[in-house]
Amino acid sequence: MVRTRQDMIRGSMTDAHCHLDLFDAPAKIVEEATGRGVDLIITAGGSGKGNAGTWNLSRLPHVYGVIGIDPGSANEDDGYFDELEIMVKGNDKIVGLGEIGLDATVENSAAAYRQVEVFERQLEIARRLEMPVVIHSRKRLDEVVGMLVEKRMPRVMFHFFEGDEKEAAELAGRGWLLSIPPAESGKRKRIINEIELSNIVTETDSPVVGKTPADVFQVIDYIARIKNVSPVEVAEQTTKNVKGFFGI
Ligand SMILES: [Zn+2]
Known about the structure:
alpha/beta, TIM Barrel
C-alpha cells in the first residue's frame, strides 16, 4: 500500500464540524473516517429533527455533538428552548450549542428580528450551562459579534468562517476559534496566513460541503502548505484546540 501524507498523521486529525445525521449510514462513515486517521468528530444539529439525530449519534465512539436552532430554523416555537436545554443536560457527549447565529441569505428565512431573538435565547442557555457556542454567520457578522460581545461569551467557534483577514484577526484577538472548511480561496489563504494556528480548527461541513469527515485531511494539508509547517503539526494543534474548546 502506498503511504500517503494522510497515513502519516493517522490518529490525530479532527473534523470540528459536520452533520452525521444527514448521512444514510453514519456509523459506517465514522468508522471509515477513524480508519483514515480522523480521531475526533464534532457533529452539529440545527433543527428539531437534526438535533434529535445529533443527540443519538453523539453516542458513537470518537463522536461528540452540539445542538441548537440555526437561523434557517428560527421559526421553531418558543417551547422548544426548554426541550433543547433538557437535551443538552441529558447527554454528556453534547458539548456545546450549535450551530446558532444569524444568516441574511437562507431561503424562507425567518424574519431578521426572529433570528436575533432565537440566537439570543441560545446564548443565554449557553451562558447558564457554561458551554461553548458554534456560530453560523452569513452576511451578518457585525451583528453576530456585537451580540457575542454583549453577552460576554468566552468560548466561541466560527464554523465555516467567511469573513476577511481583518475580521479574522479581530475575532482571534478575542481568543475565539475560526474553523476552516474544504473550500480554497484567496481570501481564505490570507486568513490562514494572518492568524496563529492556536486560533484555527478544521472542518468538512460534510455532507453539505465535504463528502465525509475523512476529507478534513485536505483542509489540514492546505493549512500546512500555507503556513509552511508539517500536516502533523497542523493536525495536532487543531485537535488540541478543539479538545480545549469543548473540554473533551
Ligand atoms: Zn454546518
